[in-house]
Amino acid sequence: MSICHHTLLSNGLLVDWPHARLALTVYAPGAVRVRYTLQPDFSLRSSLMVVAAPDDAVPFTVEAEPDALRLITAELTILIDRASGALTYLDSRGQLLTKEPAGGGKTLTPVDVHLSVFDDEAVLETGVGADGVRVRAQNVRTVVDRQAVQATLAFEWAPDEALYGLGSHEEGMLNLR
User: What pLDDT sits at residue 46?
Assistant: First the structure.
């Protein structure tokens, strides 16, 4: 997958491949929004996660190299590998923050979203189990309601690097690696 075309925007960079599109939008010197899609255009829906607006006054530059594009702010550099689309994130001193695998770390897989449709004569059975009340139904059919996208994002980790957080410690370990 080689970069087909890139466009410099007032607040970032748009990169197009034959079957994918990547947008890097600068919000602050240390904050760049990364969007990736298989569609010709990005969704126009408001993000539930990003509430700020990009700041067109934040200075940045884009450098084109034979093997990569670089988006550079005062605090951050993002390299886009021309061959794979893999992203590498560097701090202002050029030190590695994180990076995707060389083959690219972004995968979007279309999936069908199913909807359960109950007929008028559906039989409901209520029971109590270890995890509370359960209601089971018979005479249920499933239809495809819409199509969604299953996203996977992979990063390369240093051997001694730990991953904490994400709000879940069900296994009793703090380091999720």
Answer: 87
**How far apart are alpha carbons 177 and 163 in whole angstroms?**
6
DSSP, residue by residue, 8-55: EETTEEEEE-SS-EEEEEEEETTEEEEEEESSSS---SPPSS--SPP-
Domains and CATH numbers, the chain: 5-105 (2.60.40.1760), 109-148 (no CATH)
* Blockwise average pLDDT, block size 10, the chain, 177 residues: 83 93 96 94 88 90 94 98 93 96 92 90 86 87 93 91 70 68
Burial zone of 104 (CB within 10 Å; 0-12 exposed, 13-18 middle, 19+ buried): middle
Residue type, 47: S
CA 117 to chain centre: 31
